[in-house]
Amino acid sequence: MANRIGWDVIIHSGAGLVALVAGGLMGASDVARGLFSVLMAVSAISAILISWRHAAWVTGHWLAMLPVIGIGIGFSLADWGYDFAYATLWIAFLHFLYRGWQSQRAQP
Hints:
With about 110 residues, the chain is mainly α. The protein has helices at about 5-25, 30-55, 60-65, 65-75, 80-105. The model has no long low-confidence stretch (mean pLDDT about 85).
């Protein structure tokens, strides 16, 4: 039972993966940009809840909030904020994959 994946993690992961696709389409569609923005908000809120629930907040998590800051910039100040959000989402995603690969290599 300890290895069961919770709904919070499924929601966070699903929102992040769909946001990667929607973000790639946002240059062609305002709907994709809106979906990307909403999914980034869902992903950020679920990340905060997961970190709080598991007492797993670390300094690096603040960097993972950069996509949300980009959404805020895009929504209120300048369109380049959405591009910033998308680029930093990819950086966070690739970092997540790398850390997973590292942890698998470290296990005997």
